[in-house]
Write a structure and sequence with these properties.
Chain A: InterPro entries: AAA+_ATPase, ABC_branched_ATPase_LivF/BraG, ABC_transporter-like_ATP-bd, ABC_transporter-like_CS, BCAA_Transport_ATP-bd_LivF, P-loop_NTPase. The complex is a heterodimer of chains A (243) and B (483). Chain A is an alpha/beta fold and 243 residues long. Chain A contains ten helices and ten strands. In chain A, α3 packs parallel to α6. Chain A is globular and about 45 Å long. The mean pLDDT of chain A is 91. Chain B is built from 20 helices and four strands. The chains are: A alpha/beta (243), B mainly alpha (483).
């Protein structure tokens, strides 16, 4: 895969919160059609990297290229119009709006003629959402809300899907379902996925390649299977943490 | 939930005190409970009455008057005793029926209110239609059934309609976009002064030419206000908008050469009916249509102007809610970060909300100017903003019919107080009910917030439904489904 141009390329990115350094020169490449996961402990800077890609906060040094274009200093809403969609950490669905309205919000930048077809596809992937289509977002269960967050992101017809901890606070069975859907989307639609996860075992099994982040640095990278075998990864993220 | 307490559907609507009492009671058997006992209630009421005595001693009991030789003290023990008695009685009744009972009265009343909403799911829709139909025929209704007093009633209807329009305008900003605006009256003032000043300086400008200009100018000021406050939310936004409202008023008050300062602007032209003025004699409205001249024609005409303006406001809002920009407003209210992550330009979304809300405020303002014929900064104080905001909040944020109901209740209620002549027979000839309007206002607000914390109409109509028809199999129909 590496002979192609990466769809998303993060180069020596440094991000600060005020004076506190959160990312210390991170390099990550995501090639088209890949599922890439970023694992790491709490506070390692995983979500910060995700947010930096989205331009909030913006990187203080380094470069972020999307499809060959420099998006380091582009405002968030313009980045999200270029074919990147994000399911943010903590899901952040619109609680008082119905499932349908949430999905419409996701599709607000897409030409209206795609809507019905896209909706059908989404409801095939998440039949539960169809049942709940007229229910308010806030009344859904945690797993359904996560599905809705992903579905909402997919309604914008992205080339690159960014997922921030989709397994957070969910039952193992639901996590499995959601990961199945991600795999399915990647296989049949060729969707490129960049997945930030604490659930290292599932994430690495799902992903083609993975990165390990410690304290704002990428310390290891390799294919998912390789990382799963690495002693350091097992010791730090898997033993005792496996579901 | 305490053991043995019937779980009412409105458990969350109960006031704090009842909640606490219930929780504390959960640990002990009801019989041994001192909190529900009569003695406890009496002791509590006595404590409250004592506090009133201490506080009221100098405020109510002793009064100093200026007398020839200095100050004289008059003692008003009767008044103090009445105050103490009222507090004692009210507190005792509250204790017995609300705070210290297993089944608080408020709980039952709250239950009754929300049960009503469940029993008539289309109540809002039908109420809206009924009110609309009544509003259409309102002037004729009053001229027919209340001859002689119709002018007063139509005037009141115009006033209520103005507040409905203002409420609907503010609802865009506060109810839909979730931006707390405490300075909405500024746009009302901009609209009013735009029309007044335009009419003063240019002969040819009448109400209908000035109306769009006033709306545009108000929208422009909405954007001016919007820019600096885009990054703010909640409390901080409220403070800045409050300041903005005051700045506009103070400028109007002090820029004497331009706005006339505290003297205001008078002689603002009345609206014409396609060029026909509502005057007696040759060329007037009545003359043209060959009907006898009557003062009331102008009021009826004014009523229909504000009615149509308000309906336009409502229709635009309802339409926009179903369009991407309206949906983006609501999404913005729910979660700004999620909005950005969906590629929504939050800056533009907020500005459109501010501009549109301001525009409708401006329309209402220029209507106000033409109706009064005279405007001064006094009409645009913070109290006006507060009343409009109260209408929106009490009606239920984002609810259009709620705004109508709370406007009628609040504005109509104040007017109603003027007509309660019989009260002065009870409380003595010096009793002036309108002096108590703020007190009644406050009590009404507290009561509504206790029973309906999210406003009178708290349900939100979804803007989109899945269009696909449910297909129901024959077996399901046999089981009683799908009828």
């Amino acid at each position: 895969m590496n002979e192609r141009q990466p769809l998303l390329s993060v180069r020596k990115v440094e991000t600060y919160y005020g004076k506190i350094v959160a990312l210390r020169g991170v390099d990550v490449d995501v090639y088209p059609g890949e599922i890439v996961t970023l694992i790491g402990a709490n506070g390692a800077g995983k979500s910060t990297l995700m947010m930096t890609i989205c331009g909030s906060p913006q990187a203080r040094a380094g470069q972020i290229l999307y499809d060959g274009e420099d998006i380091t200093a582009t405002p968030t809403h313009e980045i999200m119009r270029k074919g990147i969609a994000q399911s943010p950490e903590g899901r952040r669905i619109f609680p008082r709006m119905t499932v349908m309205e949430n999905l419409q919000m996701g599709a607000s930048l897409v030409a209206a003629e795609h809507f019905d077809g896209d909706l059908k596809r989404i409801f095939e992937l998440f039949p539960r959402l169809k049942e709940r289509s007229s229910q308010r977002g806030g009344t859904l269960s945690g797993g359904e809300q996560q599905m809705l967050a992903i579905a909402r992101a997919l309604m914008s017809r992205p080339k690159l899907l960014l997922l921030d901890e989709p397994s957070l606070g969910l039952a193992p069975l639901i996590v499995k379902q959601i990961f199945e859907v991600i795999k399915e989307l990647n296989r049949t639609d060729g969707l490129t996925v960049f997945l930030v996860e604490q659930n290292a075992f599932h994430a690495l099994k799902l992903a083609h390649r993975g990165y390990v982040m410690v304290n704002g640095n990428i310390t290891m990278s390799g294919t998912g299977a390789e990382l799963l075998k690495r002693e350091e990864v097992r010791a730090a993220y898997l033993e005792g943490g496996r579901h | 939930m305490a053991a043995g307490t019937p779980t009412a559907p409105t458990a969350s609507n109960r006031p704090q005190g009842a909640q606490r009492a219930l929780e504390e009671r959960g640990d002990m058997p009801p019989a041994a409970d001192h909190r529900t006992s009569m003695a406890g209630s009496l002791r509590d009421a006595a404590t409250a009455a004592f506090l009133v005595f201490v506080l009221g001693f100098f405020f109510l009991g002793v009064r100093s008057d200026i007398a020839p030789g200095g100050l004289t003290l008059t003692f008003r023990w009767g008044l103090l005793a009445i105050a103490v008695a009222i507090v004692f009685g009210a507190r005792l009744l509250l204790n017995i029926f609300v705070f210290r009972t297993a089944r608080p009265l408020t709980q039952r009343m709250g239950g009754a209110i929300s049960a009503q909403g469940r029993a008539f799911p289309n109540l809002g829709k039908w109420l809206g239609r009924a009110l609309f139909a009544f509003a259409v025929i309102l002037p004729f209704f009053f001229t027919y059934f209340f001859p002689g007093r119709e002018r007063q009633y139509i005037d009141l209807a115009i006033l209520i309609m103005t507040y409905i329009m203002l409420g609907w305008g503010l609802n865009i900003v506060v109810g839909l976009a979730g931006l707390l605006d405490l300075g909405y009256v500024a746009f009302y003032a901009v609209g009013a002064y735009s029309f007044a000043l335009l009419a003063q300086h240019f002969e040819f400008i009448g109400f209908w030419t000035a109306l769009p200009l006033a709306g545009l100018l108000a929208a422009f000021w909405g954007i001016i206000l919007g820019f600096p406050v885009l990054r703010l939310r909640g409390d901080y936004l409220a403070i800045v908008t409050l300041a903005f409202g005051e700045i506009i008023r103070v400028v109007l008050l002090n820029w004497y050469e331009f706005t006339g300062g505290p003297d205001g602007i008078s002689g603002i032209p009345k609206p014409t009916f396609f060029g026909l003025e509502f005057v007696r004699g040759e060329g007037g409205f009545a003359d043209f249509f060959g009907i006898p001249f009557h003062n009331i024609h102008r009021f009826i005409y004014l009523y229909y102007i504000i009615f149509i303006l308000a309906i336009i406001t409502n229709l635009v809002t309802l339409r926009l809610r179903k369009m991407p920009v309206g949906r983006a407003w609501e999404a913005l209210r729910e979660d700004e970060i999620a909005c950005r992550s969906l590629g929504i330009n939050t800056t533009n979304t907020k500005l459109t909300a501010f501009a549109l809300g301001a525009m409708f405020g401006g329309f209402a303002g220029s209507f106000f100017a033409t109706r009064q014929g005279f405007i001064s900064p006094e009409s645009f104080t913070f109290l006006e903003s507060a009343i409009i905001l109260a209408i929106v909040v009490l009606g239920g944020l984002g609810s259009q019919i709620g705004v109508v109901i709370s406007s009628i209740v609040m504005i109509g209620g104040i007017e109603l107080l003027r007509n309660l002549g019989f009260l002065s027979q009870i409380f003595g000839p010096n009793f002036e009910p309108t002096q108590y309007r703020m007190l009644i206002f406050g009590i009404a607000m507290v009561l509504i917030m206790v029973w309906k914390p999210r406003g009178l109409v708290s349900t939100r109509e979804p803007t989109a439904v899945l269009k696909e028809k449910k297909r129901i199999g024959a077996d399901m129909v046999a089981q009683g489904e799908g009828h």
